[in-house]
Design a protein that fits this description.
- The chain is built from 19 helices and 15 strands.
- By secondary structure, it is an alpha/beta fold.
- Strands 3-2-1-13 form a four-stranded parallel beta sheet.
- Strand 1, helix 1 and strand 2 form a beta-alpha-beta unit.
- The chain binds one RNA strand through helix 2, helix 6, strand 10, strand 15 and helix 13.
Length: 553
Amino acid sequence: MENSGKFKRILVTAALPYTNGDIHLGHIAGAYLPPDMYVRYLRLAGYNVVFICGSDEHGTAIEMSAIKEGVSPQVIIDKYHFANKKAYEDLGIKYDIYSRTSTETHKKTSQDFFKVLNDKGLLYQKTEKQLYSEKEKRFLADRFVIGTCPVCGFEEARGDECENCGSALSPLELKNPRSTITGDTPVVKESTHFYFPLSKFQAMLEEWINSKPDWKPNVVNYCKGWFKTGLQDRAITRDLDWGVPVPLEGYDGKVIYVWFEAPIGYISITKELFEQEGNPEGWKDYWCKDDTKLVHFVGKDNIIFHAIFFPAMLMAHGDFVLADNVPANEFLNFEGGKLSKSRGHSIAVKDAVSRFNPDSVRYALATSLPENKDTDFYWKDLQAKNNNELGAILGNFVNRTFVFAEKYFEGTVPAAGEYKEIDSIIINSIKSYSSSIASYYENYKFKDAVSETMNLVRDANKYFNDTEPWKAVKEDIARCGTIINTCLQLCRSFAVLFYPVLPFSSEKLFRMLNISSEGETWESAAELKLHAGHKLNKPEILFRKIEDSEIEQ
RNA sequence: GGCGGAUUGGAGCAGCUGGCAGCUCGUCUGGCUCAUAACCAGAAGGUCAAAGGUUCGAAUCCUUUAUCCGCAACCA
């Protein structure tokens, strides 16, 4: 619906996680759960969609982690690549492909991209003075230099800014500079780098973003802030060992800047996906045709790269589609503090899923997504949402329905007789709910989509109460059958409508209903597909209660 | 200091092209008893951070202040 209509296919990307740490719930809420829900919805709704992600594995930070731990960068990226891949799987975040930027395909794709821009004469070179460590035989990135602040005299000022007085600094301004890695004194040495003329693309970018009225205000505001300052050209190469080498003679020891090369990963990973599927040219449909809708899901820290820098690169290159939307989220804070590993304010995905039902984690995050502003996440919220909403509203409705079918109808679907008005109302409401929920998904309003889905279950519980099947079972068994039939049909609707947010429970519900989830569509959620006499499986508890003691940890 | 964002009942959030202040949870009361002591109904609870301004009318627009957060281009 909406503007999906003019597109033949949708390519959804989730921000490539930087592979020097475990992903945590803040990342999930910001950039991974929303696209997973979006894609699951789109598939049910019948769209042609590809969902890709992968590890971002190059750059200064990874090389420095490797040096500090005394291992090769490969050890670092392997460790976190596989750990993060598993974390996504554990949470039910299901990509069509989860690859990485250390592949040959990616190396070639980003080098080709670089060469196209260079051959077009768009790039230029500039020589600048930089600090160089003779002992380590490397140029030092700003943040790996400390020294005495020329403004306030603070002796531990970092190369990019002084934490004491807040002055923005360049490492060349520091007095008595030294490497944070070895402590030795660097020398000033010249180095030549390629620059991307971002400033020349400002007008085109502004026009492009102005043509996107459906973008979230927070994203547009971010971009406008950058435009106001004026975009500056960016160096797109670095003096570093760990990365994609500059594909030209005479540039040994230089690699393509990770933020130039990483988003090209979206293209190379799409290529890999289609290669695996035996259709090596298939990726072009998704990247080179105007009727592809490209959507980048990112956290707000990545807006600059996905809404400004990467689009400018694509404009410069010329062969590729630009993003239709960048529905970036804000940050999710934990227990009232910033999510940061150093302050112990982060929850790694692996710690959350080892304790709780992944669907409970997904639901708790989905209902407090930082869509418009930073939000807070508390363990007790997860407990409350699991117990009071998933358990008491959804799980309990399913359970009370199944227990009736089990006890009074031999575990089968009873026949539906004549419908009364109250039955018709709830049955018709499934259709209106499914279309309003769909509209929320299409417009990236995931919190609203989830709470709207739960509202249908609230209505279902009211229906159960108002029709009083526990009385009907004694007075009018046929009437009771009609009610329980309706409730079972509702359960099937829930299995479809909750699939985007609660995939594991949805599957469980399909099993309990003894039907396959294969071939289910969003449209079918409103159909009454369970036939009288259909045998049900034994009911199971969908969401077990989380005790206080589990939360106190 | 500059730029951008935020501040709404006990908690977490929505509302912000200006028009009686909403949702979920929690609390209190009542109903029901099929069900994971779950479900349903009703109620209480907010001078929308503060001050000033525009307007017939402001949570919403403007100015100032306070607090918090992000950005500031070689971390990604």
